[in-house]
Specification:
- The protein is α/β, with parallel strands linked by helices.
- It folds into 2 domains: about 1-45; about 45-360, Metallo-beta-lactamase, Chain A (4-Layer Sandwich), CATH 3.60.15.10.
- Helix content is about 35%, strand content about 25%.
- It has helices at about 1-25, 25-45, 90-100, 115-120, 120-135, 145-155, 160-170, 240-245, 260-270, 275-285, 290-300, 320-325, 330; strands at about 55-60, 75-80, 80-85, 105-110, 140-145, 180-185, 195-200, 205-210, 220-225, 230, 250-255, 305-310, 335-340, 345-350, 355-360.
- The strands form 2 sheets. It has an 8-stranded mixed beta sheet with strand order 6-5-4-3-2-1-14-15.
- Helix 8 links the parallel strand 10 and strand 11 (about 250-255).
- Helix 9 (about 260-270) packs antiparallel against helix 10.
- It is globular.
- Bound molecules: zinc ion (ZN) (2 copies).
- One zinc ion binds next to loops.
Length: about 375
C-alpha cells in the first residue's frame, strides 16, 4: 500500500514537472504550431471539400452600430470557384480571410448603395486583393450610378499608400496597373428594369432596384448558378421588386431591423439625454424592413431559406434572436436564421439541398 502511494506521488510529481516544462516552453511550442498552421493554410486549396455550386457567406452580418459578432455589411458569393463580394463594410475583408475566402481571389465587387457602412471597407478590399494577388488589372466594382465617385474617392485616398508599396516591394510584386478599383456603373432608377451584369453560360448576376429613399439609387443582387439561386437584398424598405427577384430563390439574404428592440435602445437614449441618437433611431425605421415583413416577403416569393443580415440593433446575446425575429418563424414556412459573421450557406449544383456551416476561424 505504502509502495502504491509512493508510485502515485512520483507519477504526480513527474506529470507536474512535465506540465511545468511545457508551460515554460509555451512560446517556442506555439511558434512551431504557428509554422505548421501557415504551411497548411498556404498550401491548402481554400475551396477543397466544397461541392460545385453556389455558396453564400456572411463576411459581415452587421450594420453601422458596433456588434462584437457582426462586422459591417459584407456578403461573399462563391459560384463554382468564382469569388465575388457584395458590399464592403468595415471588418468584412478581414473576415473574408478568416473564412478562407482569400481577398486576392475576389473577381469583382458589387455595391448595393453608398451609405458609409457599405463602403467603408472598400479601400481595404482593393488593397488586399492587389497586395496578395499581384493583379495587373484593378478590381471591377459594379454599382449603380455614383459608384464612379466612390471609387475615385478611394483611389485618391489610397494614392500615397499605392506609391509607397510600389517603391518598397517593386512593380513585380505590386504591379502599378493592378492597384485600386475600376468602377462599372449601371442605371438603376426605381422604375428602371433589372440589369444583367454577368451573363455567362453557368452564371447570371442581375441587379434590381430597391427602396431605400433618400439613399438612391439602391439595388439588390440576384445570383443564379447552375440552377441554384441566391438573392441579396441590400438595404431596403419592403420592396416588391425584391419580392419579384426572389421568386423561387433557394436563399434570400435580407436585411432586418427589429422596431421592438430599436425602441428599447431609443428609450434608453432619451433617458440618457442623447436626443441626437434618439432621433436617428427614430428615422431609421422608415427605410428598412422588419424581420416579420421580410418573412412575409420570403413566404410570398416561395423562398426556401431566409438569412438575416444587416442586423439592427446589435444583438449581444443569442437569447435576443427570438425577440428580434418576432413571429417570423410562424409567417415563413422555410428555414430562418439570424445571421452571424462566418455563416456559410451551400447550394450544391444539381441538388435541392441547403446546408449551413460556420466558416469563421479565429485560431484562438
Ligand atoms: Zn446599411
Ligand atoms: Zn443604407
Amino acid at each position: 500500500m505504502r509502495q502504491r502511494t509512493l508510485v502515485a506521488l512520483v507519477l504526480t510529481a513527474l506529470i507536474a514537472a512535465a506540465l511545468a516544462a511545457a508551460y515554460a516552453m509555451r512560446g517556442p511550442l506555439a511558434v512551431a504550431g504557428l509554422g505548421r498552421l501557415y504551411e497548411r493554410a498556404f498550401a491548402r486549396d481554400p475551396y477543397a471539400g466544397l461541392p460545385d455550386g453556389l455558396h453564400v457567406g456572411l463576411c459581415g452580418a452587421g450594420a453601422p452600430l458596433p456588434d462584437p459578432t457582426r462586422a459591417g455589411p459584407c456578403v461573399a458569393v462563391l459560384a463554382g470557384r468564382r469569388l465575388f463580394v457584395v458590399d464592403a463594410g468595415d471588418g468584412g475583408v478581414r473576415n473574408l480571410a478568416l473564412m478562407n475566402l482569400p481577398p486576392p481571389q475576389v473577381e469583382a465587387a458589387f455595391l448595393t448603395h453608398f451609405h458609409s457602412d457599405h463602403i467603408d471597407g472598400l479601400g481595404e478590399l482593393m488593397l488586399q486583393r492587389w497586395a496578395g494577388g499581384a493583379w495587373t488589372t484593378p478590381l471591377p466594382i459594379y454599382g449603380p450610378t455614383g459608384v464612379e465617385q466612390v471609387v475615385a474617392g478611394f483611389q485618391a485616398a489610397y494614392a500615397l499608400d499605392r506609391g509607397y508599396r510600389i517603391v518598397h516591394h517593386g512593380p513585380k510584386v505590386m504591379p502599378p496597373s493592378g492597384a485600386g478599383g475600376e468602377a462599372r456603373a449601371f442605371t438603376a432608377g426605381r422604375d428602371a428594369p433589372d440589369v444583367v451584369l454577368i451573363d455567362d453560360p453557368d452564371l447570371k448576376v442581375t441587379a434590381f432596384p430597391v427602396d431605400h429613399h433618400p439613399a438612391e439609387p439602391a439595388v439588390g443582387y440576384r445570383f443564379a448558378y447552375k440552377g441554384r439561386v441566391a438573392v441579396i437584398s441590400g438595404d431596403t424598405a419592403p420592396s416588391p421588386r425584391l419580392e419579384a427577384a426572389a421568386r423561387g430563390a433557394d436563399l434570400l439574404v435580407h436585411e432586418g431591423l427589429a422596431p421592438n428592440l430599436v425602441a428599447v435602445q431609443r428609450r434608453a437614449a432619451l433617458a440618457a439625454g442623447k436626443a441626437n441618437l434618439a432621433a436617428i433611431l427614430h428615422d431609421i425605421l422608415s427605410y428598412h424592413t422588419t424581420p416579420e415583413q421580410a418573412a412575409a416577403i420570403a413566404q410570398r416569393a416561395g423562398v426556401r431559406y431566409l438569412l438575416f443580415d444587416h442586423v439592427i440593433p446589435p444583438l449581444p446575446v443569442a437569447a435576443l434572436d427570438g425577440p428580434y425575429l418576432g413571429r417570423s418563424r410562424r409567417i415563413f414556412s422555410g428555414t430562418v436564421r439570424v445571421g452571424r459573421d462566418g455563416d456559410f450557406v451551400s447550394l450544391p449544383a444539381g441538388e435541392t439541398t441547403i446546408r449551413r456551416t460556420g466558416r469563421l476561424r479565429t485560431f484562438r
